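Journal club side-thread
Mid-discussion, someone asked how the predicted structure for our own chain would compare to the paper's figures. Pasting it here so we can look after the session.
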Amino acid sequence: MTPSLKAGERQTHSVIGPTLTQRWGAARWVLLALVVIIAIATLTTYLTAPRLGGPMDPASTSRDGTHALVTLLREHGVDVVEAPDIAAAERAARPDTLIVVLQTLHLLDNDVLRRLGDLPGDRLLVAPTSSTREALAPHIGVAGSVPFGGSEPGCDLREANRAGKVRLDMSDEYESIDDFPITSCYDGALVRYTDEGRTVTVVGAGEFMTNEGLLTAGNAALAMNLAGTNPRVIWYTPQQRQGESDAGAEISDLIPPAVRWIVIQLCLAIALVAVWQGRRLGPLVAERMPVVVRASETVEGRGRLYRSRRARDRAATALRTAALQRMLPRLGLSNNAEPPTIVSAVAQRSGAHAQTLAHTLFGPPPVSDDDLVNLARELDNIERQVAQS
């Protein structure tokens, strides 16, 4: 090889192969970007993370908590007593109180419902289950469901008319089951009746009372009007299992709500890095080879590589495959032809012995370099005889 070619090769390597410094420079910016993204995501999560709590929890500032409504009630002079269990509700119960029962994941058993029914004061049942409704509002039954959307009061209930149009989620439609006089509002999603001096109000959806739901239409006004009718309110939202119950929580119920936002932010950060650093395939561009390598040099280079690794089997396979690919079209055979068929066709064209041809074309690999050279010569002779026949 000429000195100019060696110089060209050195120049090619310096252009094509990046140095360690160049690779570190590219990786450094990628690492810096990842650190910045993770830092921003961590800071955002820390600053915006709500105080964790279960659904309808008065201490929770998450979307499904009721901390905002409880705070508004207290600012308007209502004495709100947070009762996380039935014992706390019994201690705070008085005739002039309103017991707000908000259904949570921890369902109530029959004993807890019986103790709640014995407490004095009015009742406000929010999204009750069938067992809770039958125990605490026995005159109310379910007639159907109210579709999602906003609706007008459509009744003469003062609390509903002051709130006006509200937006309730999917709710049950209530009716009287024993012709007991009731007041029905919002297409049956809100009902009220009075029995033995006790006012019982049932509303089929509870989302309008949450921190997020208060911001829609007249939801805040309706929630304040319903929960602020008495000077004292017992906010009963069981956040732990009350008594014995057959109902259980799923694994998704045990995951804090803030975890979802953390996972979403991390996925978004990974997607942005993937888009930024992803390989973009454009149209093919023809480029001139920086160095012209002759075919003989390629053959010699591959031969030296086989010899350095003592890969006589690979070299023999390459020689036999190349010879067969050149002979098969002359023999009128396809590439999928079986070895006996090929040996028979070559024997007819060349006149050589079939067993000798089978050993040459499909025999074991050579055990020495001399055997490999002899194999190349025999293949060349066979190929020449087939071409001249």
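Post-session note: Confidence is low (pLDDT under 50) at residues 1-16, 244-249.
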